[in-house]
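Fig. S4 source data, part A: sequence.
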Amino acid sequence: MDSRLAMQLNAWLALDPDPRTREELQRLAQPGHEHELAARFAGRLAFGTAGLRGEVGAGPSRMNQLVIRQTAAGLGQYLLQQLADAKSRGVVIGYDGRLDSARFAQETAMVLTALGINVRLTRRVCPTPLVAYGVKHFGAAAGVVVTASHNPPQYNGFKVYWGNGAQIIPPHDAGIAACIEYAAHQPVTLQSLLDAEQNGQLQWLDDDFFQSYRDAIWQSPLLQADAADKTIGIAYTAMHGVGAQMAKTLLADAGFQQLYSVAAQEQPDGHFPTVNFPNPEEPGAMDLVIAEARQHHALLACANDPDADRFAVAVRRGDDYQQLSGDQVGILLGHYLLHKAPAHQRLVGTTIVSSALLEQIALAAGGECYTTLTGFKWLANVGMKQQTAAQQFLFAYEEALGYIVGSLVWDKDGLSALLAFAQMTAELTAKGMTIWQQLEAIYRQHGMYLSRQVSIALKPDTADIGAWLRQNPPTSIAGMTVLSVADLKQGQHIFADGRVEPIPLPSSDVLIYHLENGGRVVVRPSGTEPKIKCYYQLVEQLVAQDELVAAELRGNARMDAFVQLHQASLPQ
């Protein structure tokens, strides 16, 4: 072991309060583990707009007790610098059902209260959307959720909300990161939870807090149904997460009685024993809830991810079930809410990689649609900024199964999305319509927007793909004319006729090719490995004699060819 690494190791061991991670580092210090030990000290786990997320383990590049303490200290110092009333407004803290989440949440509370900052800490596991709700509900300075959402069992995270109830965006991410770096070189002071409770700095959030969210959902006009068939069957899974109790309660409050929960996945379990990857987007993750739906002949098979901020659904189609894409759910909910909301509440939002169909639906309904970079930190913060008294925020979504319904929670909320989708389905059923018939009606009016995401692995020696595309701009892709290119890195929208317009989005290494007939390709090169992500969109028109299934088959065949031709045009 070189002397520099030995100094880093000894300095860390002198501060690490956890016997388990100390022992882990001491094992790695033995001969034969030099590479792994060096990786643990190659840098700190980076703090960004999504907070922290990484594997649990020893050292500064992992999630552990010392990293949590230093992160909490940095956050606390930043709040004290930025907000004169940070101490009294305090921080709301919640946590999911992962193995270390409760301990990490309590450590955060002990650090913040030692800095004089009041803390409201949930006494039990808590869905992530409730913390975002709690920040606004209590007028807190910030919120923290200890969660790794739908990542594998070995991960955990530290997610931060600002006082507006939305995830942090620049410059707060860099400001907090700088304070964490400073805190990492200082002693971190703690206050016991008992002392904090006795001196009034710690308030436990119990049933009344969860009830307040339940009441707020119940009072939202957007989440009420008119003439509706509440006898529809709904199968549900929490995917070993924290959503089951609230999800079942909200559905029961709304009058749904035919509820069937997947018992094997209902209770929080950080080992996630029945799924390979606890993300409802992953193949196989919905198998148990679809089996539950099939057993009871339920209409819907619904899922939240483990921290209940995402929502997924499979819908009965003939004798089987088909999972809707995130874009399809977003389009259905957007259409439903735009036709339900008052005229002064029709501002909706989506992202650069999600379907452009929502914008067409909004325009037809007299609403407005804004587009942001990927991530709910942007969807929420831009939505707040763009809304006016005459055009209030209604709905936003991204294709990765995230949805905001109304402004009760300024982040994706899988619980309110679940209820909204159930209410929409119940209203359609009462009219004698299915979800598939509603999709077909939307497609007939606006065109069937088909989407696909593909990650393309390139050879290690392939040139910088982003630079290559900028140096060799295509005039057509898969036989379709390129009408314009939006280069988010350069901040320019370049049209085929030579016009150039500025793009009002933060800089990001993204190229968006707008093609004839509504086609689109979004290319996101990777700056660290020979790989790109491509998001494809085609618009298939339904003719009078078309059936939806036939149009889908035709559109998917076009999409297959589109993707293959585009990939073949890239440098190999």
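Fig. S4 source data, part B ends here. The first strand starts at residue 52 and ends at 55.
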